[in-house]
Specification:
Length: 66
């Protein structure tokens, strides 16, 4: 920027220019919470509960990065 170039020559992530509010982005992380966490609360199997919690965590990563 100091060499006379404007801000349009700087590489920036596209998510900065996305017209979503911060609260909307936070809600995207919790999109699949009712599906996976309710199923995890209803199961008695410890391994299946852990799988559902991990599936919820991975779904929030997917929603955040997509």
């Amino acid at each position: 920027m100091w060499s006379g170039k404007g801000i349009n020559h700087v590489s920036m992530p596209a998510k900065i220019f996305e017209p979503k509010s911060s609260i909307s982005r936070m809600c995207d992380l919790w999109t699949y919470a009712p599906k996976y966490l309710r199923a995890a609360a209803d199961t008695d199997d410890h391994l299946e509960r852990m799988k559902l919690v991990i599936a919820f965590a991975m779904s929030s990563v997917y929603m955040c990065c997509s």
